[in-house]
Amino acid sequence: MEKLNITFCSTPDYTGNAKELYNYMIDKYKDKMNFIWAVKSDEKKELLKQKNIKSVVIGTDEFKKQMKKTDVFFTTHCNLTGDINKKSLYIELWHGVSSKKLGFMMNNISEQDSSWYDSLSYSIDYFIVPSEFWKLIFACRFRLDLKQILPIGYPKLKNIKNKDAKKNLEQIIDCKLDKYKKIIFYTPTFRKGCGRKGDSKFGKNILNLEEYDEKELEKYLEKNKYLLCIKKHPSEESNFLNKFKNTDNIKLIKEEYLSKAGYDIYNILDAADVLITDYSSLGMEFLYLNKNVIYLDTDKEEYMKNRGICYENFDFWTSNTGVSKYDDFIKLIDKYLKDDKFLFQEKKEMFFGNIKDGGCKDICDYFFTADGRIKEGITRIDNINRRYKSMELKYLKEESKKKQYEELYKLKEKELKDIYNSKAWKLAEKLRKIKKKIFRWGKIWRI
After folding, report:
1. Of 14, 10, 6, whose CA–CA distance to 31 is shortest?
2. How far is Cα of residue 101 from the mean position of the Cα atoms in its chain?
3. DSSP character at residue 176
4. Are 126 and 138 in contact, with CB atoms under 8 Å apart?
């Protein structure tokens, strides 16, 4: 019996929901399936090879061959929708659940974004979300049928509770943690995207707070023996590095170091006692650890105008805990770190339902039989039809534009012929010939 070929892809490579599901599946199905990762560099391919993980570099001939024989795709950023084949099943795990508007829900969706999301709606077969709460939201974001959205898992939660988190963090920031009483993580959201200049302006200070005093913050952290770890989004880290220097109580978590260690943010997240964020999905995920979150809303109005918050209500998502001023921020830090009471239990249950072990078992049981076959009833016929429809629509748009240009060309050609055959044009031509003769004879006369 021929084995299924399963291709995984994530951003960054080998991280998040795809990584956790892969680790579960390779243990569950062992030799019953063929697994491979699509990665973005030869360096990452070499790192995975050292872990005995098969991979191909996107864009190479080897990658193209693999795409043609892939039976099932699992991705986190719709990474490979342009590389699917007629027979493949495309399952999107996505990379985060958050309050911000995405896709067709965005207030000011760019033409580039709109075109990309439109192609995705015809490529995705199934979309995995962590609870019933997210079904309608993701249906609107991607213009998908509710039946395509399955509230059965969020694999990255499998190892979010990590007993080695502090040990892993020490390795990443090269610093012993036993001298600190509490650890604070700060993870602001990604503010740029496909065709967008930015969802809102990020402040000049590292926490984007009003009435902020960096010296006061450092004194506060030093006095209380707190460590603040800043983790910028991988796509925006490089701009931040030029402005930031590590201190004894403020450290930067670099994506480069995480990647080299074979980690992602979820290998160290449990090391934090409290999380600071704004609109990032990490704010939701941190609640799974029964730990509190501080939400910064300094640019809330601008962000809601440019990007948008689902239900247009930031307080709903944060349970009215948003802060913008430095003093209010410090008060919340004191409250959360000196009182361990978890304040977001209802939100946690709504966002993640009853997920256990990241839902990896439920995902596999939904799509595959025990012997590694695609279950009966998981059809790909509609998927093929939708893809052909997408290609047909694209072809019709191109043909329509081509026809418009042809008609415009014919119209302009007729206009030129009419001008050329007009009495005015013929008279103008006679005058040009006379002018040319006069100019020539004048030149001869001057000689």
Report:
1. 6
2. 12
3. -
4. no
On whether the CB atoms of residues 7 and 70 are closer than 8 A, the answer is yes
Say which DSSP state 337 is in.
H
Tokens representing 223 are 């006095």
What does the alpha-carbon distance between residue 206 and residue 188 come to, in Å, rounded to a whole number?
A: 10
- Are 367 and 378 in contact by the 8 Å Cβ rule? The answer is yes
Cis peptide before 151 (omega within 30 of 0): no
Tokens of 441: 């004879």
Is residue 75 helix, strand or coil? strand
| List of the chain residues with pLDDT < 70 | 1, 190-204, 234-244, 380-402, 405, 409, 412, 420, 425, 435-447
The token pair at 302 is 């601008």
Q: Per this entry, what is the length of the chain?
A: 447
d(CA 57, CA 61): 9
Distance CA 281, CA 97 (A): 5
Alpha-carbon distances of 245 from 121, 242, 249, 251, 381, rounded to whole Å: 43, 8, 11, 8, 55
Measured CA to CA, the distance from residue 135 to residue 152 in angstroms comes to 11
Quote the DSSP letter at residue 222: H
Q: In this predicted structure, what is the pLDDT of residue 14?
A: 93
Tokens found for residue 117: 């999301």
The rounded Cα 96 to chain-centroid distance in angstroms is 8
Each residue of 382-406: pLDDT tens digit?
Answer: 544 555 555 555 555 666 666 776 7
Angstrom distance (rounded) from CA 41 to CA 45: 6
Kindly report the pTM of this predicted structure: 0.78
Task: Please provide the distance, in angstroms rounded to a whole number, between the alpha carbons at the two ends of the chain.
Answer: 96
Q: What are the structure tokens assigned to 426, written together?
A: 């013929």
pLDDT score, position 174: 93
Chain centroid offset of residue 152 CA: 20
The residues that bridge with 5 in the sheet, in sequence order, are 34
Q: What is the pLDDT of residue 285?
A: 95
